[in-house]
Amino acid sequence: MSRMRRTALAALIVLFTVAGCGAGGSNTDCGLDGCTVTFPRSGDASVSVLGISAQLVGVDAGAATIQVAGQTVTVPVGGETQVEGFAVGVESVTDTEVVVRVRPGAGG
Description:
Blueprint: H1 3-19, E1 21-22, E2 27-31, E3 34-40, E4 46-49, E5 52-60, E6 63-68, E7 71-76, E8 80-83, E9 86-93, E10 97-104
């Protein structure tokens, strides 16, 4: 990736960081390398980060089902998948919360 493209991408991330928001008890922390979203394990929480929406659908057997940019994916804890040009990973799952990482990924 060229330096100019990286600079433009960083500027977009900063712009979307300002626009990032959470609802339903979720917490969003964004930086130049993406956003970390902490969802409450129960409840109906969704966030808007990096210009896309993300919502925790459920947790089962060490994997979280997340709806990202209109697509539903299941990601195991410690795993990552690509959705609409973004890398979506599940960092941890506890009895009370699910921590998800969303960052610009390959192809985006």
